[in-house]
Design a protein that fits this description.
Layout (H helix, E strand, L loop, with lengths): L10 E7 L5 E7 L6 H9 L16 E7 L37 H8 L8 E3 L12 E5 L5
Parallel strand pairs: 1-5
Antiparallel strand pairs: 1-2, 3-4, 3-5
Length: 145
Amino acid sequence: MPDDSLSVDRLYTITVILLDGQQHVVEFRRHAYNNLMELIVNELYENIGDCKGHAWCGTCHVEILADKKTSGETVSGEVVAGERRTGEILGNPALNALPIEPMTRDEVMTLGKLPNTVPSSRLACQIMVDEQIDNAVFRVRGDVS
């Protein structure tokens, strides 16, 4: 019997908190967009992605706040259970809630130039849109604080 868990027709969900604080729950299909930046731009019309996904500009800078399935955190990033605080998700590999791709050299360099990064900062253009980010919460931080 085929595994339908990765079916192209299956809907996945993420929560995106925009720069103005508005929270949006967005549904998507696996690989419907090349990356998280394109999903945010197409579904929420957020003004990010000046370099068109090359990891050069930092305008698609996001913070990974939580994986709602496993982290015990609320959408706002406040701890509900355990001792993990917002910003520790990628800073501590043992607590990494999302099995997403490691950072490329360009992404590390671009994030290093931004004044408002946190340990869970990533560039949305470098995060693939698939089942790995299902139920995750992202806050758009942009390229300035």
